[in-house]
Amino acid sequence: MALKRRNQRRIDFNSSSMSDLVFLLLIFFMLTSTLVAPNAIKLLLPQSNSRTMAKQTVTVYINEKMNYFVGDRPVNESQLQSEITVALKGAAEGTVVVRSDKSVPVQYVVTVIDAVNNINNETHQNHKVLLATSAKK
Q: What is the CATH number of domain 47-135?
C-alpha cells in the first residue's frame, strides 16, 4: 500500500521579498543622507603642499589687524562688496584670491566669500573664491 504525502517539500527560492527589502533600504538611506547637511566650511590651511595656480582677477588681503584691502586700496567691510564688483567688472568668470594672515578668524574670510556669492547672485555670473596658502615648510 503506497501512501502519498500531502505536504511536499519545494526547493525553489523566491527572491522577490529580498529585492523589495533591498529597494526599501536603498530609498531609506538615500532620503536620510540628503537630510544630513554638515555645517562646516572647507578651507585650505594657511600652509599647504598643494600647488593650485589660478589666474587672479582680484586679490583681497586681510591683515592681522582685520583690515580689508582690495588690491592696494583699504576698504571697510560695508564697502567690500561694491569694491569687489568694480574690480570684477568685465570678467564673466573671475577669480577672487583671499590672502589672509594666519591669525585672522574665519568669519572675516567668510565675509569675503559672502560678498562674492552676493555678486554672483545679482549679476548671474560664476566668480570663484580661492584661499591663498603658503608653501609648507
A: 3.30.420.270
